[in-house]
C-alpha cells in the first residue's frame, strides 16, 4: 500500500481501557487491503484522515494490534475531553461509524538478540510499547518506565518476557511538564550486555534522555523520537520535528 493510499474501515466496537485511554476496534471489507501492507514493526502507525469543515486534517496514531483471523485491528486513543480532533472522535465513536486513514508505516521491532529491552514513554507511547512487549519471547529481559496521570490510568501489559514495570504518576501535573521519566532512567541500575532502547513521548525527552542514552547504547539500538510537543497542534509539531532531525534517532537496520 502506498503511503498516500487511503483505506476506510468500520468501527466494530469500543473499549474503555483507562479513564483517558479508549480502544477503537475496526474492520470491514477493506481490512484485507490494509493487511497486505501491514509491516512487521511493533511501532506501526497510520495517518488518520479527519474532516474539519470542508477540509481534512491528518493525525498520526499507532496500530495497537492486528488480528488477521478475526479481520480486525485496534487503535488506542488518548482522550482529553473536547481537546483535539482524534480524541473527541474516539470518545463518541459507535459501531457502524467509519474511519479513513493512510499508511501504514513503521520500522522498529525489538531484536531478540539484545540482552535487555528498555522502554520509556508516556500515554502516547503505550500502544507501541504494549505491542512490543507482546512479541517478546519467554526469557527475554525487559524494563519499562511509563508515565501516566495516576494509578487508575495503568493498563495491562501482557508479555512472556521477564518484565519490570515502573509506573510514574504525574499526580495533577500536566502531561509533558515533569522530569519523571528522565529521573527514573538516570536512577536505573544499567544492566550488563547489549541494551536496545525504545524511548518515545513528549518532545522534551529528546533533550534530556537522548544524550544520556547515546553514551550507553549503540546508535543502531536506539529508537528515540517525539510523538508530540506540548502546546502545539500536530501541524505545528510536524514543522518543529522537521527542524530537529539531528535530535531524532532511529535504528539503522
What is the total domain count? 2
Highest CATH level, the class of the largest domain: Alpha Beta
Main sheet strand line-up = 1-2-5-4-3-6
Task: Specify the CATH homologous superfamily of the largest domain.
Answer: Nucleotide-binding domain of ferredoxin-NADP reductase (FNR) module
Number of strands: 11
CATH topology assignment of the largest domain = Rossmann fold
- Measured between the Cα atoms of the first and last residue, the distance is 21 Å
SSE-based structural type = alpha/beta
Query: What quaternary form is this?
Result: single chain
Q: How many helices? A: 6
Architecture of the largest domain, CATH level 2? 3-Layer(aba) Sandwich
Uncertain runs = none
Helix content: 10-25%
The biggest beta sheet reads: 6 strands, antiparallel, barrel
β content, as a range?
35-45%
The general outline is globular
Spell out the key features of this protein:
253 residues, alpha/beta, Elongation Factor Tu (Ef-tu), domain 3, Rossmann fold, 2 domains, 6-stranded antiparallel barrel, 5-stranded parallel sheet, 6 helices, 37% strand, globular
Describe the structure.
The protein is built from 6 helices and 11 strands. The radius of gyration is 18 Å and the shape is globular. It has 2 domains: 6-105, Translation factors (Elongation Factor Tu (Ef-tu), domain 3, Beta Barrel), CATH 2.40.30; 116-247, Rossmann fold (3-Layer(aba) Sandwich), CATH 3.40.50.80. It has helices at residues 31-35, 86-92, 126-135, 180-187, 204-214, 234-242; strands spanning 6-18, 21-27, 45-52, 55-67, 72-78, 98-105, 116-121, 141-148, 162-169, 195-202, 222-228. Helix 3 links the parallel strand 7 and strand 8 (141-148). Helix content is 20%, strand content 37%.
Amino acid at each position: 500500500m502506498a503511503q498516500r493510499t487511503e483505506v476506510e474501515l468500520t468501527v466494530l466496537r469500543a473499549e474503555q481501557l483507562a479513564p483517558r485511554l479508549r480502544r477503537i476496534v475496526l474492520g470491514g471489507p477493506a481490512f484485507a487491503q490494509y493487511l497486505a501492507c501491514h509491516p512487521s514493526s511493533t511501532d506501526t502507525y497510520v495517518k488518520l484522515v479527519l474532516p474539519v469543515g470542508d477540509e481534512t486534517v491528518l493525525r498520526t496514531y499507532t496500530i495497537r494490534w492486528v488480528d488477521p483471523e478475526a479481520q480486525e485491528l485496534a487503535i488506542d486513543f488518548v482522550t482529553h475531553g473536547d481537546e483535539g480532533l482524534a480524541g473527541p472522535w474516539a470518545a463518541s465513536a459507535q459501531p457502524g461509524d467509519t474511519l479513513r486513514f493512510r499508511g501504514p508505516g513503521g520500522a522498529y521491532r525489538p531484536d531478540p538478540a539484545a540482552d535487555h529491552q528498555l522502554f520509556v514513554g508516556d500515554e502516547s507511547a503505550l500502544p507501541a510499547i504494549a505491542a512490543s512487549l507482546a512479541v517478546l519471547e519467554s526469557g527475554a529481559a525487559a524494563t519499562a518506565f511509563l508515565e501516566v496521570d495516576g494509578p487508575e490510568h495503568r493498563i495491562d501489559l501482557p508479555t512472556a518476557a521477564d518484565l519490570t514495570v515502573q509506573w510514574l504518576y504525574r499526580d495533577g501535573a500536566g502531561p509533558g511538564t515533569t522530569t519523571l521519566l528522565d529521573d527514573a532512567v538516570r536512577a536505573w541500575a544499567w544492566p550488563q550486555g547489549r541494551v536496545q532502547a525504545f524511548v518515545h513521548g513528549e518532545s522534551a525527552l529528546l533533550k534530556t534522555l537522548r544524550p544520556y542514552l547515546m553514551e550507553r547504547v549503540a546508535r543502531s539500538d536506539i529508537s528515540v523520537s517525539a510523538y508530540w510537543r506540548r502546546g502545539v497542534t500536530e501541524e505545528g509539531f510536524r514543522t518543529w520535528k522537521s527542524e530537529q532531525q539531528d535530535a531524532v534517532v532511529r535504528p539503522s537496520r
